[in-house]
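Why does residue order matter? Because the sequence determines the fold. Keep that principle in mind as you read this record.
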Amino acid sequence: MELHTATTSLTRQQRMAGGLRSAGLADGDRVALLCSGNASLVDLVLAATRSGVIPVPLDPRLTPRERSVVLDQVEPALVVDDPAVLDELADGPERELDPFPRCRPMHFTSGTTGRSKGVWSGWLSPEHAEALVVEERELWGFRADDVNLAVSPLYHSAPLRFAMGTLLAGGSVAVVPFAPEPVARAMAELAPTTMFCVPAHLQRLFAWSDETGEPLTTGSFRLVAHAGAACPTPTRRRTHREFGEDVVWEFYGSTEGQFTACPAPEWIASPGTLGRARPGRTVWTDDEDQIWCAVPPWASFEYWRDPDKTAKAWRDSPHGPSFTVGDLGRVDADGRVFLDARRTDLIITGGVNVYPAEVEDVLSAVPGVVEVAVFAQPDDQWGQRVCAAVVGTTDEDTLRAVAAEHLTPPKRPKEYRFITALPRTATGKVKRGELTGPSALQ
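Structure:
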């Protein structure tokens, strides 16, 4: 359990940038990162973005099928799937870096068709590269005396963004993959000042504290931000008590971009709100209650090599160029944003986005499956859990084995229900809402 300082990070970034060039990467090439998260992964992302290479952080648990879908699109010049390669790259010759990242890391987000989509920021001008860093720094207050406790997987955009912002501001990062006891120990020993987490992390941390009788050491924190899933009210209120109402924030966003930020006092004054639009943005809704966000030019994006999907995500508006991820909600007279429904069919389990179409694509290929529909059920720990309704003659053990082979753990159904027919609308669309009710599953 060590602190990774900005000084150490900068030296490694310079050498990793040289290591990437020595490995044959040129401007615009992609490097796919499939390593378990540690501080060296953050260094490599910064080294790449500050030297003209596009980093593509990916879940190292991807199955061969899932991995090939992404890599076929990215066509990386280098795939880093062994932590030893990170150390080898750090032995490269030092290379001068740009002052600020010239692009955002390319994260992949699932699509409603089951095909992952790369979110690509494009290359930023020096002015826009600086503006992107300054915007994050001013919102979250990143500074040189910060210690960011990184407990979420660093291949996800939010924890990686917090770690990068801290190092760029001169602060330090401590990477502690989440488990209640080591995280609690890090809180006591390292005096962290910032942490990003999902509600499931908070729930497990509080449960551990209650079971062991060990109090949590929270006095060093100035910022605890949570996002990724709806936070149950009891968990939220306890987070306010444990860390302090002036410390806790929630934000609403997606891999594509960030919409709002909400300090705890604002939620307390208006329960259910996700806060107001981040500075420099305008959040608005259309006639169908779909949420849109107008962003500055450095927050723009496109879907990698998919102009059709990109065009559907963007529109011009009186507020400026705006994008949507399909969520539904409202904005009140004071600018507070409320979310009514997430993207169509999206399941958010423990902060991980799961699209039913991707899971259904795998399960429908199992012999004996006539049809399958994947849906969410509420879950006290994870927010939602993935479930599957199956029509056919196969058995649960077979389905679980296939899911284990082809899907990462968050995507694997936790519950299988066998029914005679799926409920459908007159036009044939599966009525997933009815699958959560017991009457449809008898």
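The chain has two domains: 6-341, 347-441.
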